[in-house]
Amino acid sequence: MPSDLPTQERTIPDALWNSRFLRACRREPVDATPVWLMRQAGRYMSEYRSLRSKVSFLELCKNPELAAETTVFAAETLGVDAAILFADILLILEPLGFDLEFSKGEGPVIHNPVRSVGDLAGMEPLTDVSSLGYVYEAVRRIRAELPANIPLIGFAGAPFTLACYAIEGGSSRHYEKAKAFMYSDPGAWNALMTILTDSTARYLNAQVAAGAQAVQIFDSWVGALGPDDYRRFVQPHMRRLFSQIVPEVPAIHFGTDTATLLELQRDAGGTVIGLDWRVELDAGWERLGPEVAVQGNLDPVVLFAPLAEIGRQTRRILDQAAGRPGHIFNLGHGILPHTPVDHVRALVQMVHEFSAR
Ligand code: CP3
């Protein structure tokens, strides 16, 4: 990505373009390492729980005013360098015809999962993504409310992770239904993945058009696959997805349990590659090479440890990044529901303090 693009050709204002987060995405030097945290707006915050006692999760996602407030409140309370849209990766399944519910205790449920090729009949990629208009409206409001130098990250689920939900009908431990579908009917699998990929590309580009400065693609469950299956069943779709995203917008390619997939993920695309805590940040970055930025990689459970241990692990990760341009500090996966808020705030401060150049 050219960093010397003349100002008049940029579609985003200088204050955002020169923000720590976007500079790090472009692998440019920064005054301190940017940090944001996956699931930074969520149940670990009492303000979020109190809001959720009045509205259901889906109502919250579909109310742009409340969704915007949730995003902006979390970003400002924590002092992070980027905000993330408040939404969910599964929302896109609704306009594709899936009956989605977030049930108490059980997590997401899809009442009409895909179980055979017949279930795909009539399903087509979303050509018109306006059915998710409430998301773009939240993006517009968030952008208007955020400080001028804090970028907003839009996001979507990756096709594999979405396909797992669409086929399993909810969360799963071994993904046996999704994998059996993939192995037994590769044609139907590819048809479903293509529908998800092309819909997701349009959805992300609509978030960008509404005011997101970067996008993250969550392939949360891809670590369930071995390298050969990833190469055959997932990588072509991920390539196609990244190739359709507006070129000047940084795309973060996130997965967990991906120690054996990193090179394949990098080859599929992404400006920034997410690393989880099962790999050492320096060793992971070495394998990915100098052409990409990296994001990560503190174990979210470390936030339950005493501050001294959080500090020790934060220093270790920053030492491994060694001040090289292109590191975005984050957890290796989302903040867990019972995480102490003061530890989260302390982490953000430590990252800034320990990395100040
Ligand atoms: O702050 C943020 O990071 C932005 C909001 C966000 C949510 N979900 C809100 C949410 C984001 C980026 C997501 C992504 C998401 N959703 C992923 C990928 C990220 C990951 O953790 O790997 C996945 C797999 C989902 C699907 C999903 N949504 C599950 C499995 C669950 C239930 C899990 C749980 O913690 O209960 C959700 C619900 C959900 N999404 C909540 C939030 C704040 C909790 C809902 C609530 O009870 O209020």
Which helices and strands appear, and what pairs or packs with what?
Blueprint: H1 14-17, H2 20-25, H3 46-52, H4 57-61, H5 64-78, E1 83-84, E2 100-103, E3 107-110, H6 133-145, E4 152-157, H7 159-168, H8 176-184, H9 186-210, E5 214-219, H10 227-244, E6 251-255, H11 262-268, E7 272-274, H12 281-288, E8 293-298, H13 307-321, E9 327-331, H14 341-355
The protein binds coproporphyrinogen III (CP3).
Q: Choose one word for the global shape.
A: globular
Into which percentage range does the β-strand content fall? 5-15%
**Overall mean pLDDT score?**
96
Number of domain units = 1
Largest sheet composition: 7 strands, parallel
Helix and strand element order: HHHHHEEEHEHHHEHEHEHEHEH
**What small molecules are bound in this structure?**
coproporphyrinogen III
Strand arrangement in the largest pleated sheet: 1-4-5-6-7-8-9
Helical residue percent band: 40-55%
> What Rg do the Cα atoms give?
19 Å
Distance between the termini: 24 Å
The structural class is: alpha/beta
Tally of DSSP β-strands: 9
CATH class, named: Alpha Beta
Low-pLDDT residue spans: none
Task: List the total number of helices.
Answer: 14
Tell me the CATH topology: TIM Barrel
Which architecture would the CATH scheme give at its second level? Answer: Alpha-Beta Barrel
Structure description:
- The chain has 357 residues and is of the alpha/beta class.
- It is built from 14 helices and nine strands.
- Strand 8 (293-298), helix 13 (307-321) and strand 9 form a beta-alpha-beta unit.
- Helix 6 packs parallel to helix 9 (186-210), helix 7 packs across helix 9 (186-210) and helix 10 packs parallel to helix 11 (262-268).
- It is globular and about 60 Å long.
- The chain starts with 13 loop residues before the first helix and ends with a helix.
- The chain binds coproporphyrinogen III.
